Amino acid sequence: xxxxxxxxxxxxPINKIRPYIRNPRKNDKTVELLCKLIPKVGxxxxxxxxxxxxxxxxHARFTAAIRLGMKELPCIVSHASEEAIKADRITDxxxxxxxxxxxxxxxxxxESIK
Length: 114
Fold this sequence. Notes:
Helix content is 40%, strand content 15%. The protein is of the alpha+beta class. The protein has a four-stranded mixed β-sheet with strand order 1-4-2-3. The longest helix has 14 residues, at 28-41. The termini are far apart. The model has no long low-confidence stretch (mean pLDDT 88).
């Protein structure tokens, strides 16, 4: 069995993208940092959306883009099944919790972008 990949990034008008209504994550602090970071480094990580324009991955980037007045965003349209999209949505957010941070190093990095 091969690994499913999507190989096309499309620029989608921001008003055609919708958040997943049951997004289980509060990300206000992340959005604040992204609003400071995106103007400095650009918007380099596309959102992943389903065929209906609902966000699979990228809610914080989407909210930051709205606040920054962006009109369109780079997106990958997933053609996965609803079951796979549901698994992708939750695991993408939770899997990072298995990584460990070197707290002093990360704090210095965050402070340097404020």
